[in-house]
Amino acid sequence: MTPTRRPALLGRRPVLGLLLGTLLLGAAAQTTSQRLEQLQSELQQQRAQSAEQARELQKLRSRIANLSSQQKETLARLDALAGSITNLENDVATLNARTALAEQALSDTTARRQVTEVRVTRLQNDVRQILNALYRERSGRYLQLLSQASSLSDLLIRLQYSNMAGQHNTRIIETLRGEVRELQTQQAQQESNARALREVQNQRRTALAQLQTRRQEQTQLLTTLRASEQGQRTLAAQTQAEQALTARSIDQLVGQVVAERSRLEEERRRRLEEERRRREEEQRRIREAQERARLEAIRLEQLRVAQERARQEQARREAEERARQLAAQREAEEAAKRQAQATAQRQAQAAAQRQAQEAARRRAEQQEAQRQAAERSEQQRAAQAAAQRARQQQIQQEQAALEARRQQVEQEQTRVEAALAPLPVQTGPQGFPISSGQVSSPYGTNGAQWTVLQGPEDAQAVASQAGDVLAATYYASLGWVVLVEHSSAVTVYLGLQDPQVRAGQRVAQGTPLGRVGGSPVFGPGRMAFQLNRVQGATRQPVAPGF
């Protein structure tokens, strides 16, 4: 069996990666025969070795020693391919995790950028309206406001409000500048995240291609070996050697991980705590932005109501002015008629006609001027109403974007809080790791400290209890090995393929961990399960109760 290193997630969890990377480090370059010899040497130093174990191990070593040079070379090629496949499997798992993190980082940055873009668009329109108003009115409104003061105190009050309006406009412009800088930063971050994602995706494709090539080489070599009697003997010797090494490998792997359990948990909690603080800070910023948007929406509604009242008042004054002017015109016309009657009939008629024509002309000009003024006023009111509606729509879009982001952050925060919560004390029965599965070899069979389980083809292994994933690593002989920590126990799932979890992940009881049948030692449709009672850095394998 070839040892491996655990996949690290973007360098965020190096502790376990170093731990499993150094596990059986010297054995990485050893042949099967050399590892068997080392195992026998270790067992001889332990008084617990039985005579039967010693005889079986010696027989196995002799069988490998009696292989021909060609068979030994083939066995070395199998060992090398297994080691290469092991490393590539773990590399692919690492890259899968890095891809998921890069996708999450890109998604977060994109969501924040969308919120900022909506806010920048609204502020740009605000600044555009301010500049248009300044260009259109110049200083006329300002001087008109000050000239209408009835006293010195009234003048000072009007001056103060004018300055406040100017300060408000200045704040809007400064806010826009800050938001544009933030948007540029987020755009750069988004591009950086996209590049990182493309890079890790390319690395993953390369690793997958290499893994496929090595597996094809392994399949071709195994097919060739199975076609001859000599090759079958070579494969049998290798299989027996891997079976002999299984117990030692499992014991070392689980023992090392359990010994490092406290450091792994500390690293996991530190990482989650950092993420929790980041989410809290973003939630605070979102709440502040939502409050600003809410107040702006209220201000816009108040402004709309005030503008509507002003429009109605202006319409009333204009109607009164038109009525007054019409009455004056009629009175002038009546006076002209009376004057015409007092003069000579002939001259009076001509003068009256001229006066009537002149009065009609002036009335028509005045009516046209009033019509044009009313039309301009109506166009201005319509433009103001359209701008008001557009601004209200922008505020609503900003509020919708903020609410969507708030819900995303809240979901992530809930997940982090759940992961930081202490594991509950397990009081219920141990769940069976395979749905519709059964025990193939009970705990303790031939001295084994695990239970071999069998299930339907492509059956999923599931977490027997809720817990935190301590490690997920690949071994050539054991397949994928997943270790899950519980409140006072560690469960080990061996012989998996297509792992569904990663180190640091919290799983509920029944969460899929991977498909069974990934170990040549346990065979197709099978896996091994080990339950360890843990106290501090010590562990004790126990029967699982099924």
Automatic annotation (TrEMBL):
<feature type="region of interest" description="Disordered">
    <location>
        <begin position="265"/>
        <end position="284"/>
    </location>
</feature>
<feature type="region of interest" description="Disordered">
    <location>
        <begin position="315"/>
        <end position="391"/>
    </location>
</feature>
<protein>
    <submittedName>
        <fullName>Putative peptidase M23/M37</fullName>
    </submittedName>
</protein>
<feature type="coiled-coil region">
    <location>
        <begin position="29"/>
        <end position="105"/>
    </location>
</feature>
<feature type="compositionally biased region" description="Basic and acidic residues">
    <location>
        <begin position="315"/>
        <end position="337"/>
    </location>
</feature>
<dbReference type="Pfam" id="PF01551">
    <property type="entry name" value="Peptidase_M23"/>
</dbReference>
<dbReference type="InterPro" id="IPR016047">
    <property type="entry name" value="M23ase_b-sheet_dom"/>
</dbReference>
<feature type="compositionally biased region" description="Basic and acidic residues">
    <location>
        <begin position="359"/>
        <end position="379"/>
    </location>
</feature>
<keyword id="KW-0175">Coiled coil</keyword>
<feature type="compositionally biased region" description="Low complexity">
    <location>
        <begin position="380"/>
        <end position="391"/>
    </location>
</feature>
<feature type="compositionally biased region" description="Low complexity">
    <location>
        <begin position="338"/>
        <end position="358"/>
    </location>
</feature>
<feature type="domain" description="M23ase beta-sheet core">
    <location>
        <begin position="453"/>
        <end position="531"/>
    </location>
</feature>
<dbReference type="InterPro" id="IPR011055">
    <property type="entry name" value="Dup_hybrid_motif"/>
</dbReference>
<feature type="coiled-coil region">
    <location>
        <begin position="173"/>
        <end position="228"/>
    </location>
</feature>
